[in-house]
Design goal:
Layout (H helix, E strand, L loop, with lengths): L2 E7 L3 E8 L4 E9 L4 H8 L7 H32 L4 H4 L2 E2 L6 E2 L9 E3 L5 E3 L2 H14 L13 H8 L7 H13 L17 E15 L9 E7 L4 E6 L10 E9 L16 E4 L6 H15 L3 H11 L15 H15 L9 H11 L4 H7 L4 H10 L14 E10 L5 E7 L6 H14 L2 E3 L4 E2 L1 H4 L3 H12 L3 E2 L1 H11 L11 E3 L7 E2 L2 H10 L12 H13 L3 H14 L4 H8 L14 H11 L12 H12 L8 H6 L14 H9 L14 H10 L8 H22 L8 E6 L1 H4 L2 H30 L15 H16 L5 H14 L6 H12 L21 E5 L14 E5 H7 L4 H8 L3 E5 L2 E4 L3 H11 L4 H7 L6 H10 L7 H9 L13 E3 L2 H10 L2 H20 L5 E4 L4 E4 L18 H11 L2 H7 L7 H11 E9 L6 E10 L6 H10 L4 E2 L6 E3 L3 E6 L2 E6 L5 E3 L9 E13 H4 L9 H14 ...
Parallel strand pairs: 1-20, 3-30, 20-25
Antiparallel strand pairs: 1-2, 2-3, 4-5, 6-7, 8-9, 8-11, 9-10, 11-12, 13-14, 15-16, 15-18, 17-19, 21-22, 23-24, 26-27, 28-29, 31-34, 32-33, 35-38, 35-41, 36-37, 38-39, 40-41, 42-43, 42-44, 45-46, 45-48, 46-47, 48-49
Length: 1511
């Protein structure tokens, strides 16, 4: 028996199939899905970084810790201020200084500046200072007599006053607490905006002197305006709303000016200076910060004084976000230092040493060392540097750096055990690494002549001297591109006049820039500006030391200190050196593959010529080399090493070595050979999984797939092999495109796929246009719009036309227009007509030069021709296809393009209907190809090939070797042979690719099987949409096939709608042999006999008879057709297996787990680690959305009977009626509701001409929660009236909206809001009002739940986060009637904390729990007969019909639960196939699923293990 496991691994899927190739049967197959949000998948596919749940939790935890540190600083500050007696009594009374040391008492939130009075009201305790501030505002003439300003502004007044005059000690305490709340931004090196010597970015506030509309509105409704600014600049921008009202207004701009290298402003062809403008946004906070800092520095004021005086000039402006922005900490620290130094003069407590020591003891009762350090300081240092502005050093992130596989270090773990661990890889910025990288790059460099793609490297790089010079050239550059390198090589060989760089290419990516000595170049550039620097200063030692400072020091101040020390040590001009290096950007956190220690050992062997020294090689390696040369026996030097180094016979030979050979010389192995091993049992595999370190791969999606694949393989091993050793003989793997590409490649492919989709849609539209011939101008024969072959033909046809060289400027203009059309997914009819006619007059056959008329393009007279014939080299890519005459194609047969021309040039070929064409001669052919395929290098190169280059074959074979760095080595441990299999990847692990599975699926009939499998869904779509567009009749097979209308075809793929396609692909890759892979990867493209033998072995042949175009005689020969099936009944077996698959889904229901928090404390003067007491829980799911709502009590009106209103007459709205009731109360001597009611009844409830039997009363609605929201264009009149809490703001917004004709998009655009705030006094009925940017909007509490139960948390509400409804409980009463409830996540968490089950055993009605469902659980919907006797259902032996009644639970809310058939991956049509929600409550046969379903137990392999019984 030969058991082969096939695996198809995607970003969130594992398809598997186990076959016995000798017994010729399928043992099992299935699909395992790891549910992921489509947004995550799209992000990964697009090459963008993934934010995992762990990363999201870390971000929230960081925010919590920031808040905790603010509270900790506050507690420490309060303890010191309490010892100093600086706190008001009302504030001290609400703080616990005994047990919780500076924290507020439970349920209290005291404000230092506000004291609670007995009647529940608050009073401002710094009233005298507030009055002083009011007087200043009045004297300045900025406020009127009755105009109010906020009490909060007093803090800015006090911050200004404290710089020159005495303030009360309580006021100083308030200032200190204010600085604790807002202390500025601690900016690390490199966090400032990046410097660009050719870009000048500045922030301007400029007046607009004129606005001119340049053009009429375009198709999108945008009008282009020219805004003429006061300094003469002109800013052009589009806008949907008129900008004419901007005239005379001042606007903020971020202006980017392009500069020349000498600092002058760049100009365009017309002599206009090149500038771009943009309005600052929230994302431009660094530029806004810079402007604020510049304004403060120019004003020569502190932050507090700057804000206060700005308010003094204009009290209507907004403070937060306008005057106060996130600025650097130094501004705040300088201000507070000035305040404290001044107040020391007035408050003796700040000079009292005994009081200072009491404060230090209060904070550090056990830490004698720190107490001693602080004893030499004063209050200013304690408050500034030890409490308010203390910044802990950042934790090391060294654990996240990848391991070096060559070097190890021994150390003791926390238990004292000796452990051997890998050294960490060095930074890519390390000069040693960059030299190592250059040598490696240089040795791999190849140069090819473009004309014939011949390797001509030795013409340019012939010996050691050439390599020395090339290294020197690269080592003095920051990076290298193809053109500069080729120009250097041509110049170095004195060929500048004979050849051009454009005639050659390198073996690397042509348009990519490769790094060289980036660090050295950046250091050299700055050293060149340092004054009086010695010419030979930058040695390797100096470069390494300077790099280490730049790399390791992150704090800006510490960095400047280190630079000064370095300059002093080397006797440099300190000022000049520091000025040039202090803004040196930090190096990126990118790391190589090896440690610095390993590179130091390998690099001396890779250097050559004058860069090589025997003495640079370490002594251990020197000793090994000596023994290799002499042949002396050493058990540590393996025979393999001696074999590799057999040509190295003396010490001087050990230079200029390739990396792999250097590794063998130094370490006796390649870098990853120590990983190779063998798993003998399931226990070995389980041990690896148990010891697997989470996040070690640093890519969450890859890590998840790797671990889940191993678990699936373990289960297959157990299920089918009972865990016996060597159960698997081979493992064949195909990885999805996203899994085997880098982030950059995924990003590029995502863009390419989008473009290709647009092309495919346009091609289909063009074919339909050609078929319909709507304009009657062009009759095109035999058009089939849905034919993939014809779509391919048209792509080739238009590719030539767009790529061809054109003769005149007019044609070039047409070509540009056509390019625009070609990028549109749905061009207009007029564009299509113009496009098709233009194509018609451009296309020619590449072998004859004759025009191919568009009207005959799809007839049998023309065929797609493979430049390199498929019989010799399998390449079905677009770059290997052209269109030519069918007769010419037959004549060309197995020849390459140029081969054919050489053998048949000048021959006349009959094409039918009396037409003849002449094959090009060699010169004409070459000229034609070079001229007409100038924009398609790949196709041009193939058309000029005389033989298949060996490198093409190697490249295609190598493609599969880069599939995975992790999966292959791991699975190799299952199938590694005992002998001759010590590589990191076992020879029994076979990589496949999508091209192979695509071909074999077609030839083995699996595409037909798939069409039959998914056809019922398309038939159902016809019924839903009352159409026939979702199926098409195939005359060849006499059956219906799935189809999708053109307008819905973008991005649609038939196999992507069903999870079972993963298993089908796995089956194909399992049955694909090494011979299949070698043949289709063109391993034997240049070995006719071997390739022919493989063809005979693997493919079916068909006898074909035809007339030879050359001899005119009838010829009969055998032609290879489709590949043979793995066994006779393969297609039928595959259909049966696919139909029987139950898709399994990975659950993710881990919600909380216990966490052990460790903190440090001082005990007996020593720092020790202590486990936190009590139960600590880590929540693994987002408990709620970020938005926090505050409970609000809203006064509303309602109409009630007068008798009801008299129960609380003060709430009556009608003031006249309320006054009448008061008069009657005085008249009767007391309030008597009955008497007053009779009074109005006697008068028939008439009062002042109105009926008062029913009256309006005020009431307070307590069931609402509010949140602040930015005013934007969503604020319609209805939303304002029904959502805004403040009725005064409501009035202003509604008045402004009415002034703009009730058009919210104009009223509340940024310009509209600015106009509203400018006219806010008029809109508010003549009363002053602060500018409005945000308002409080409310909504009912509904399903929101309180954040906590203590203090103000009980009045803060949040909404459950999306996807947190994880438990849908199904209860049943004594009669078997079901009831349903979704258990909220917060309830689940509380139950789990108490050690209870996630779902209550009984509901509120005391009904028993039947079972509960979570997303991705599978349920079975029994038939009517089965429901009568559920016990008779054999869950372990479901028929295929029963498996169609298995559904996956998708989501739930309230008493609703939604499902999908278990095999559905995507809807055929979004929001149509399975309801507008893309999920269903009823089964496809009509039953309400939740009413009758039975929960199934399903393992990883999709085996049903039974049902979940009642609890």
């Amino acid at each position: 028996m030969k058991r082969i496991l096939g695996l198809d691994l995607g970003t969130n899927s594992i398809g598997w199939a186990l076959v016995d190739s000798e017994e010729r049967k399928t043992l099992g197959m299935g699909s395992r899905i790891i549910p992921m949000d489509q947004g995550v998948l799209d992000t990964f596919s697009g090459g963008n970084p993934i934010e995992t749940q762990t990363a999201a939790r870390t971000a929230y935890r960081s925010t919590r810790r920031l808040r905790e540190r603010v509270l900790l600083r506050r507690a420490r500050l309060l303890r010191v201020l309490n010892v100093m007696n600086f706190l008001p009594e009302h504030y001290v009374s609400q703080i616990d200084f005994e047990k919780r040391l500076g924290q507020f008492l439970d349920g209290t939130e005291p404000k230092l500046a506000w004291r609670q009075k007995d009647e529940g009201k608050s009073e401002f305790i710094f009233q005298q200072s507030f009055n002083e501030m009011i007087e200043e505002f009045k004297n300045n003439g900025t406020i009127g007599e009755n105009q109010k300003i906020p009490y909060d502004w007093t803090i800015y007044y006090l911050r200004k006053k404290a710089l020159s005059r005495k303030i009360d000690k309580e006021e100083l305490a308030w200032i200190l607490l204010n600085f604790n709340q807002k202390r500025g931004y601690y900016q690390l090196r490199g966090e400032e905006e990046e410097e660009n010597s050719n870009k000048l970015v500045e922030y301007y506030s400029l007046k607009i002197v004129d606005v001119i509309a340049d053009e009429k509105p375009n198709g999108k409704g945008d009008t282009w305006y020219s805004l003429h600014l006061e300094n003469g600049w002109v800013y052009r921008r589009p806008s949907k709303i008129p900008l004419l009202g901007w005239k005379g207004k001042i606007r903020d701009f971020i202006v980017t000016t392009d500069l020349n290298d000498d600092g002058t402003v760049k100009k365009d062809k017309e002599g206009i200076e090149k500038r771009s403008f943009r309005a600052p946004s929230e994302n431009d906070w660094t530029l806004l910060k810079k402007k604020t800092e510049n304004d403060i520095e120019k004003s020569h004021k502190t932050v507090g004084t700057y804000v206060y005086e700005a308010l003094l000039q204009n009290p209507m402006q907004k403070v937060r976000g306008k005057l106060v922005r996130t600025i650097e900490r130094k501004f705040y620290k300088d201000e507070l230092k000035q305040i404290l130094e001044k107040q020391k003069e007035f408050h003796p407590e700040l000079r009292d040493e005994d009081l200072y020591n009491d404060c230090v003891r209060e904070l550090y009762c056990s830490n004698e060392t720190h107490k001693f350090i602080l004893s030499k300081r004063d209050f200013v240092h304690l408050l500034l540097d030890d409490i308010l502005f203390y910044q802990r050093p950042l934790r090391s992130q060294k654990s996240a750096i990848s391991d070096c596989t060559l070097e190890f270090q021994a150390y003791k773990d926390k238990n004292g055990n000796k452990v051997k661990g890998h050294l960490k890889a060095t930074s890519k910025s390390n000069p040693l690494y960059q030299e190592f990288r250059i040598w490696q790059w240089l040795y791999n460099l190849k140069i090819y002549r473009k004309e014939d793609d011949k390797d001509v490297t030795l013409e340019f790089i012939t010996g050691i001297e050439d390599k020395e010079l090339l290294f020197e050239f690269l080592n003095n550059r920051k990076n290298i591109e193809q053109k500069p390198l080729l120009e250097y090589l041509i110049k170095a060989k004195g060929l500048k006049k004979q050849v051009k760089a454009e005639a050659y290419r390198w073996n690397y990516v042509e348009d990519k820039t490769y790094p060289c000595s980036e660090t050295r170049t950046m250091i050299s550039t700055r050293l060149a500006k340092v004054e009086n620097l010695p010419d030979d200063f930058l040695t390797k030692e100096v470069e390494q030391r300077l790099w280490h400072i730049i790399y390791s020091v992150t704090d800006k101040n510490e960095f400047e200190k280190a630079l000064k020390t370095f300059a002093g040590k080397y006797n440099l001009d300190i000022t000049s050196f520091v000025d040039n290096f202090k803004k040196f950007p930090p190096f990126k956190n990118e790391y190589g593959s090896f440690s610095e220690k390993a590179i130091k050992k390998l690099l001396p062997l890779m250097r050559l010529g004058k860069y090589w020294k025997w003495s640079d090689i370490d002594s251990y390696t020197q000793n090994r080399i000596s023994k290799i040369i002499t042949g002396e026996y050493d058990e540590e030097i393996k025979d393999k090493v001696r074999e590799k180094a057999i040509h190295l016979t003396n010490e001087n030979d050990f230079q200029g070595l390739q990396l792999w050979l250097a590794q063998y010389i130094v370490y006796g192995r390649h870098s990853e050979a120590d990983i190779a091993g063998k798993w003998h049992s399931i226990a070995d595999l389980e041990k690896y999984l148990n010891e697997f370190k989470q996040h070690s791969l640093r890519n969450p999606i890859v890590e998840q797939i790797v671990t889940e694949t191993l678990r699936v393989v373990k289960d297959i091993w157990q299920e089918y092999g009972q865990g016996v050793e060597n159960f698997f003989n081979e493992i064949h793997i195909e990885l999805g495109r996203d899994m085997k590409n880098t982030a950059e490649e995924r990003k590029r492919l995502a863009n390419t796929i989008t473009e290709n989709e647009n092309t495919n849609l346009r091609i289909k539209a063009l074919l339909m246009e050609l078929k319909n011939n709507s304009d009657g101008k062009l009759e095109v024969e035999n058009v089939r719009p849905y034919s993939p072959m014809q779509q391919d033909i048209l792509k080739i046809y238009e590719e030539y036309a767009i790529g061809a060289e054109l003769d005149n400027e007019r044609d070039e203009k047409v070509k540009e227009d056509i390019k625009k059309i070609s990028k549109a997914a749905q061009p207009t009819t007029v564009e299509l007509q113009r496009y098709k006619l233009w194509l018609e007059q451009k296309y020619c056959s590449p072998y004859t030069g004759k025009v191919i008329p568009l009207s005959k393009l799809f007839t049998e007279e023309y065929q797609i021709e493979h430049i390199i014939p498929k019989s010799r080299y399998y390449d079905d890519s677009f770059s290997n296809k052209v269109i030519c005459e069918a007769a010419v194609n037959k004549l060309k047969d197995k020849y390459l393009g140029f081969e054919f021309i050489k053998n048949y040039h000048g021959q006349i070929v009959e094409t039918g209907f009396g037409q003849k064409v002449t094959v090009f001669d060699e010169e004409s052919y070459q000229n034609f190809v070079k001229q007409h395929y100038v924009h398609s290098r790949s196709k041009r190169m193939k058309l000029l090939l005389e033989e298949i280059p060996e490198k093409m074959i190697e490249r295609q074979m190598n493609d599969t070797r880069y599939i995975s760095k992790f999966v292959f080595p791991l699975l190799s441990n299952l199938v590694r042979a005992e002998k001759d299999d010590d590589g990191i990847n076992s020879k029994n692990v076979l990589p496949g690719n999508g091209k192979i599975t695509t071909i074999l699926k077609q030839d083995w009939g699996l595409n037909d099987v798939w069409n039959d499998l998914i056809l019922p869904r398309f038939v159902r779509m016809n019924e839903l949409k009352k159409t026939t567009a979702f199926t098409s009749w195939n005359g060849q097979y006499q059956k219906y096939l799935p189809a999708v209308p053109l307008e819905l075809s973008k991005g649609f793929q038939k196999k992507r709608i069903d999870h079972r396609h993963h298993a089908m692909d796995a089956l194909v890759i399992a049955c694909a042999t090494r011979d299949h892979i070698n043949l289709l990867n063109n391993k034997y493209a240049n070995t006719d006999k071997v390739r022919y033998d493989l063809q005979r072995k693997l493919r079916l042949f068909e006898q074909v008879t035809y007339i030879d175009p050359e001899t005119k005689k009838e010829v009969t020969k055998n032609v290879p057709k489709e590949f043979k099936k793995p066994w006779d009944n393969f297609t039928i077996d595959a259909r049966n297996e696919l139909e029987s698959i139950i898709v399994s889904f990975k659950q993710n229901l881990r919600i909380i787990n216990k966490a052990t928090n460790v903190y440090t404390k001082y005990e007996n003067g020593k720092k020790i680690k202590v486990n936190q007491k009590g139960s600590n829980w880590a929540i693994r799911k987002p408990l709620h959305k970020e938005t926090v709502f505050a409970k609000v009590s809203l006064r509303k009106r309602k109409t009630v009977r007068l008798s009801e209103a008299l129960k609380d007459s003060e709430k009556i709205v009608d003031k006249g009626l309320k006054q009448e009731i008061r008069r009657l109360t005085c008249q009767y001597g007391k309030f008597d509701a009955g008497t007053i009611l009779r009074y109005f009844k006697d008068r028939k409830y008439e009062f002042e001409g109105a009926d008062v039997s029913k009256v309006e009363v005020y009431y307070f609605d307590e069931e609402n929660a509010a949140v602040r929201k930015n005013v934007d264009t969503s604020f319609t009149k209805k939303i304002i009236q029904e959502s805004v809490t403040d009725t005064g703001i409501q009035k202003i917004l509604i008045n402004h909206l009415a002034a703009k004709g009730d058009k919210a998009e104009m009223a509340f655009s940024p310009e509209g809001i600015e106009e509203m705030n400018k006219n806010i006094v008029q809109l508010n009925g003549g009363k002053c009002h602060l500018p409005i940017f945000k308002v409080r909007v409310y909504e009912t509490i509904g399903n929101k739940f309180p954040v906590g139960v203590k203090g103000n948390k009980k009045d803060k509400y949040v909404e459950a986060a999306k996807g947190t409804n994880l438990f849908f409980a199904i209860y049943v009463d004594e009669n078997g009637v079901r009831s349903y409830e979704t258990i909220p996540l917060n309830i689940v968490i509380e139950r789990l904390k108490q050690g209870l089950n996630a779902v209550p055993e009984r509901d509120k009605k005391e009904h028993n729990l039947l079972f509960y469902l979570s997303p991705n659980d599978l349920v079975y919907v029994p038939t009517d007969d089965e429901r009568e006797n559920v016990c008779a259902i054999n869950f372990g032996q479901f028929s295929n019909e029963q498996k169609k009644r298995v559904y996956k639970m998708v989501s739930c809310t309230g008493s609703e639960c939604h499902f999908l058939p278990h095999y559905v991956a995507n809807s055929i049509v979004n929001k149509v196939e399975y309801s507008p929600l893309n999920k269903i409550g009823r089964s496809l046969t009509g039953e309400m699923i939740k009413n009758v379903c039975i929960k199934l137990k399903v393992d990883r392999l999709g085996n049903i293990k039974g049902r979940t019984y009642e609890r």
